[in-house]
Design goal:
alpha+beta, 5-stranded antiparallel beta sheet, 9 helices, 18 strands, globular
Amino acid sequence: MIQSKLVLAFLVLLSLTASVAAQGIVVGDAEMPPLRWGEQELTYELTNNTEYLKFIAITVNVNFKGSYLNPSRSTTSFAYLIPEETSTIEALYNVPGNYGRAEIRVELYDVVDTMDVILQNQKFFEQPFLLTFRIPERMYDYLGEKINLPPRVESHPDFDNEFSRILLLMLNEGRSVDEIIAEAKADSAMVYALLKRYVIYGYLGVKDGQYKLGFPVIDEEEAEETRQLALSIADSLVNLVEKNLPAYWASLDSMVQAGAMSDDSNSFYDGGTMLYRKHPAISAFLLWYYMGRNFITRSAPLLLYDNTDPCNARMPYYMYAVQGGDVVNGSHFYAPFFGKTGYQILFGDSIPELDCTGWNKPQRRFNNWAQILKFKGPSPEIFVVDTSIVKAAMAALGEGHTSILQHAYSELFSLADKHGHYKVLFGHRYWFWNLIATRTQEKLIENGTVTRRGDGLFRFDGKQARTGVGQK
């Protein structure tokens, strides 16, 4: 529970009378919300002055303005009112563990059926409150630099708030749960519920009441040292790509002459058309499909969103937490999907904004989630690709990369060991490779070797299935 030492700042934004009559419903006062994280409820007394049974939808929206994260939550619950009677209804909501200012807005709707879409013209009451969650003194050290997590995992409700990321740093320091609760002035029930979810989804191990992280937490000093290494490796890859481009174009000519691909760069359904466009070919396929897998998982498939999806992103095998902000993190988004009859890859040189409204259940591997994702911004440019053609072209473009990757891994391991990591896990390699791939693409564009295409967001529909894809 957040202690009373925190300053409680409630401000009712709307001037409301003791009761509001609308559509035959009278709404009484509600108590001020508590200054506390986690599951909460507000109660309202409603009087139904009509002769009809009324169905009420109660929505509560919580929106934060924090130090660097601004989580939001939206909850809808339902109640019914007996004709000519007074009832107490509960407005359920959840306050994420964030510092800063939060607006809680309660809205009541007179609906015909609880299964129908809620319409704005059905709203008969709303009441906003402002809460200010002050940062405890001991927490300032953890909020000095942003803590980054894998793409889209950052948006998951388990990790989209400041306390959830501070919790990872404090656990990594060996702090006990009781110490964390006391110093963060957090609600113990909320903290233990969060830890339980982390254990269930494979982020934490627990033995004799002690929690142990199953992924790397990288502090500012280590992150900066590793960034410098990533820049050096990126320079080597840029030189390699620029040297190999003539051999790459020659390989395409050979495949055209052999009838394996079309010489028409606008032939949409040809599996090699994408290879005429250097931006998607180099960024998505050379740096991720070809080299990225070799570096991160070696011979194993690189299935970053295996058994999950970008709207419910849980990635225990590729998880990391890095302190230091965007400068020590890559910006690429790579989401491969391999099904029984083909594959799809979604790639962006920045993390796409997804519309996950109504996306409640994780989409499993064979549900083709890449086809049904909705985008708030631009939609991806779509290419049809053929695995065999792509592999042959990437072999030519990436000739000589093995020694660079071996050097990169050796140096990364040395840095990790220096900072107390006993081995370099998949998540560690994934974070490092994103830095390398991002900087490699950026420098190729700076050099004029590659021209950025459109919004840098692509979807690739494969004509052949990848073999050896199985559960981890």
